[in-house]
Automatic annotation (TrEMBL):
Record-given protein name: RNase H type-1 domain-containing protein
GO MF terms held by the record: nucleic acid binding; RNA-DNA hybrid ribonuclease activity
Highest taxon of source: Eukaryota
Start and end residues of each RNase H type-1 domain: 307-381
Pfam families named in the record: RNase_H (PF00075)
């Protein structure tokens, strides 16, 4: 019974501190700085820390939360978390990482209203003080752009993307990544010429100010006149006028969004449009480079290395001609220190030994924390 009560106290304190690790695993708060009220466990841990002591309890689970990047406790001090209402605003919401508040491309902070799609936060009413504080902490100029400072930019969050598109119909709105122009676009479905393809009309954001990032302006959409996206020219059956910017795209790279008509052939998109654009880019790169099983393996290794500072890796890549004249290509890497981990996968398209070796190096680096010292041993020249 006492063990169960102790575990509950630990989890409650961890939730209040917004820490991704149990307070028994890591504690660096002095008693004079402690902001937690009416918690005996917190007071005891702080008192022990003041006297350079720690507490350990055998058999009690160390509740280390994984699956996110950049813990909130690493960008905010203990005092800031409580004095700015961050603990109160996020307690019980299972939000422990900055990546949970960022777009899927890892470079832009979500709007406050976008959080209702990502977390259990009720976003009705005014923007709270805790979110404004984090915004100020991460972004250079929140009024001009949602792009976070370079030090806080993260990698693609592929898991946030729903890969299934259900009931896609004519006049539905989607976002997709267009590889010819190298960025995600917004489109309206015109037709479905094939089972796995749709024909869309390209729309763009009607910007009021070119000097301010689109993500902090109203998502008002207008038809694109003409750009590199165009792959077809068709005529409007009613007016016999050319619809100028049409493209056939793959359904599997789409993310569905909502938009409503306002006036003069303009639409206003759902506030989540910017996150949908980032998700479309993630889907494209995720499918292009590796399947979900491989992504899961790479992320699992990365989660085990989040706290490591010095990492040693051996990489290898190879191409083999087999009896059927089919060419097989693959790569692998082994992490020898500080933990033992290994990974291997097959590679398709444009086989070469240099490509195999390079992908092995790239994949191994993707598992390493941003500030780690990485030593890679490879047999390539």
């Amino acid at each position: 019974m006492m063990k169960d009560i102790f575990e509950i106290d630990c989890k409650q304190l961890q939730s209040e501190l917004l820490s991704n690790k149990s307070p028994l695993a890591t504690w660096n708060i002095r008693l004079k700085d402690l902001q937690v009220k009416h918690c005996l466990l917190a007071c005891v841990l702080a008192l022990l820390y003041d006297n350079m002591l720690t507490i350990k309890s055998s058999g009690v689970k160390v509740n280390q939360i994984q699956g996110g990047l950049l813990p909130i406790v690493e960008i905010c001090t203990h005092k800031e978390i409580f004095s700015n209402g961050i603990s109160k605003g996020l307690k019980g919401k299972n939000v422990y990482f900055v990546s949970q508040l960022m777009s899927s491309d890892g470079i832009r902070l979500l709007r406050y209203k976008d959080l209702k799609y990502r977390t259990k936060i009720n976003t009705q009413g005014r923007i709270p003080r805790w979110f404004k504080f984090i915004e100020t902490k991460l972004i250079e100029d929140p009024l001009k752009s949602k792009k976070v400072k370079t030090d806080y930019q993260l990698g693609y969050n592929i898991y946030s993307v729903n890969t299934k598109i259900d009931n896609l119909k004519t006049k539905n709105w989607i976002t997709t990544f267009h590889d010819q122009i190298g960025k995600p676009i917004i489109g309206r479905v015109l037709d479905k010429p094939k089972e796995d393809k749709i024909r869309i009309e390209h729309w763009i954001q009607d910007l009021e100010n070119d000097q301010i990032s689109p993500s902090v302006q109203l998502p008002i959409l207008k038809k694109c006149g003409k750009c590199e996206v165009k792959t077809n020219q068709i005529r409007n059956k009613r007016s016999n006028t050319k619809v100028k910017c049409i493209a056939d795209i793959s359904i599997e790279n789409c993310v569905k969004v909502n938009a409503n008509s306002i006036q003069n052939d303009h639409y206003i998109a759902d506030m989540a449009i910017y996150e949908a654009l980032a998700q479309a880019e993630c889907k494209y790169y995720g499918k292009m480079s590796m399947n979900e099983c491989i992504i899961e393996k790479v992320n699992e290794i990365a989660n085990n290395l989040t706290q490591e500072a010095d990492i040693e890796i051996y990489t290898d890549g190879s191409v083999k001609n087999i009896a059927t004249n089919e060419i097989m290509m693959g790569c692998a890497f082994v992490i020898s220190a500080p933990i033992k981990k290994s990974f291997n996968c097959g590679i398709a398209d444009n086989p070469s030994s240099n490509k195999a070796e390079l992908i092995a190096v790239i994949l191994s680096l993707m598992t390493c924390p941003k500030a780690a010292n990485v030593k890679i041993y490879s047999d390539s020249q």
